[in-house]
Amino acid sequence: MAQLPSIPKGTRDYAPDVMVKRDYIFNTVKRVFQRHGFLPLETPAMEHLATLLGKYGEEGDKLLFKVLNSGNFLAAAGEEELDARDAARLAGQICEKGLRYDLTVPLARFVVQHQADICFPFKRYQIQPVWRADRPQKGRYREFFQCDVDVVGSDSLLNEAELIQIVDEVFQRLRVRVRLLLNNRKILAGIAETIGQPDRLTEITVAVDKMDKIGAEGVNAELSERGLPPEAIRALQPILHLRGDNGEVLEQLRGILAASEIGMKGVQETETILQLAALTGTGMEVKLDLTLARGLSYYTGAIFEVKALDAEMGSITGGGRYDDLTGIFGMKGVSGVGISFGADRVYDVMTQLQLFPGDTATTTRFLFVNFGDREARFCLPLLRALRESGHNAEMYPEAAKLKKQMGYADRKSIPFVVLVGEQEMANNTAILKDMKTGEQRPVPLDNLETWYHEA
After folding, report:
1. Global pTM?
2. What is the SS3 assignment for 317?
3. Number of folded domains in the chain?
4. 297, pLDDT greater than 80
């Protein structure tokens, strides 16, 4: 027996029943984005590696999928690289392109490349797949969709407050209970200064960001492995475990970070964002979390992470402020802020909690039974009229046995079946069958509106 084909680990096929539910998420997110004045953008799956490398930190660069050059790609490789069998060095010779790791760096590239044609502040949303050469596990895929929304070209903290409002609106519509965690990279920089390690911010944030995965002991062990002295690690502990509500934690930080200018600026920004978010009102909890670091190195200000309250899942939304991401492409002084909804994780959470509306699985509302060529031709105008009225309708393509056609309606969760035989054609009526209750009733064909609205 031939072996069945398969797909790479960390990727998934999306069958029609899954796609209908995913589209429900995409359409919900899209409507919220549009109501806040954001416009759509798409960028290529592949970018030049020079565009991607160095933007995500050391660990992020390792997860980039690299694309081999076309043709005889080994011709450009030097003998030294080939002999050394060093994959990282060799990739630099034989790969010029890579699959995008996220949608933010391509956005920065787009803004710089098309700056003369863009209206600033540039408010865009983008719903596309990204790729990461990660180890597949629950909730972590090598190919997954992100739903991003960003504002580029504005320093105002009103943008951060609006993003919090967008998160709240999206998850209220999806009926997912969530908590938004908030921190600021300037606060983390101030903490690094306070413990005497101002030049080790990257090492500190990469380790601290794993707190919920490996715990305090694991974080401390990683900090030690990264070369932080024991006294600095000890000084960090009480700061990362401050207790109290948002206001109380901010007040404690003012005392701890009093000597750090950047740290105090982070405290002020966080306080302002919390005040603005309170004015708009949210149905979710917004909590200051000093262990939130977001590993991506381009964040410079506020950082966000959203977690579902009723499901075991990592972050389902995240983002933050990046003050000069476009600067790496030569366009200095342009700030941006954005968030990204992980569509695949949101789907998994909603599936686990059974939150999809029952009718999301229904793409067709009416199925016309095919009794033969004459009956099919009679029903075609009716089929068109139903579609023009805004209803999804189809006809079974062959005059198969009735049992087979009814089974087709069942498997596709089609709620209503329309039967038009010789007698119905003579009487200008149809039999409308409710597939859920089994009820059948005659309906007039000269006034379709009376029965497709009742259905």
Report:
1. 0.86
2. strand
3. 2
4. no
